[in-house]
Amino acid sequence: MFTIDLTGKVAWVTGGSRGIGRATILALAKAGCDVAIGYNSKEDQAIAVAKEAEQMGRKACCIKMDVSVEDSCVAAHKQISETLGPVDILVNNAGVIADNLFVMLESDDWKRVLDTNVMGVVHVTKTVVRDMMMKRAGRIINISSVAGTKGGRGQANYAASKGAVEALTRSLAVELGPRNITVNCVAPGVIETEMSQEVIKLARDEILSRQVSRRFGKPEEIAAWVVFAASSYGEFMTGQTIHVDGGMKMP
Question: Where are the beta strands (DSSP E) in the chain?
Fold first, then answer.
């Protein structure tokens, strides 16, 4: 049985107020991290997560931000650095969906999804990567999706955004590897969160029929892989996409 000790590390999780983000914050805090909870609109939920982390003896701060706006990300990073210190672990989790059949998707549907899911990763990562390069250490974990590699009806914009994140992950791994910075993806399947409730409600039987496990995932199951990638056990792994999807990716 191995243990993961991240005591003294600072972790920043975007979209950290609920769902996978919340579970990740709590898992990282349990492993010893001080945590920054990035949120856009759910302030009460972000504060609740911060209090849970503080009850574990960790420092925590809530940062209101919009990952699609570069200036907002720069300001958030400044606040985190001043409150907790330099970021050691970045988890790019913030994301949105705007599902519809391809012919029904409007330009705004594409722009909102790509600005948040792709450029959001770019903006936030740019704010931390210089410090990581100077320290010659860092962990960047991007939350992708099974949609990035397995086609699905009504998710052309979302699938394109997650495929881009996985490609970006591989390129950054090559660039940053010589500085001892690992960059990996965790690609969840359908996880029981507030964001996925509508999808599950509309297509429960169809989704389950495509999964070996015949069940939906839990946020904590994604968080566990994030913590592993952030730890010393994940040091020799970079540029990878870890599929945690109940076998949904398989043919």
Answer: 10-13, 34-39, 60-64, 89-92, 138-143, 181-188, 241-244
Residues 6+ apart with CB under 8 A from 213: 246, 247
Q: What is the chain's alpha carbon radius of gyration, rounded to the nearest angstrom?
A: 17
d(CA 145, CA 158): 9
pLDDT range class, residue 248, cuts 50, 70, 90: confident
Q: What DSSP designation does 116 have? A: H
pLDDT value of position 250? 67
Q: Which residues of 61-77 are buried (b: 16+ CB within 10 A; e: fewer)?
A: bbbbbbbbebebbeebb
Distance separating the N- and C-terminal Cα atoms of the chain: 33
Q: Which one of the listed residues 39, 158, 225, 228 is annotated catalytic?
A: 158
The structure tokens 């507030």 sit at 194
Q: How far is CA 237 from CA 13, 18, 32, 84, 85, in A?
A: 20, 27, 21, 27, 26
Q: What is the pLDDT of residue 214?
A: 75
Domain CATH for 162: 3.40.50.720
Is 140 inside a domain boundary? yes
- 229 occurs within a structural domain: yes
Domain that includes residue 67, residue range: 10-244
- pLDDT band of residue 192 (cuts 50, 70, 90) is confident
158 classed as catalytic: yes
| Rounded Cα–Cα distance for residues 31 and 9 (Å) | 10
- Quote the CA–CA distance of 134 and 202 in Å, as a whole number: 48
Predicted model pTM: 0.93
**Residues 117 and 96 sit within 8 Å (Cβ to Cβ):** yes
41: phi then psi, degrees, rounded to nearest 5: -140, -20
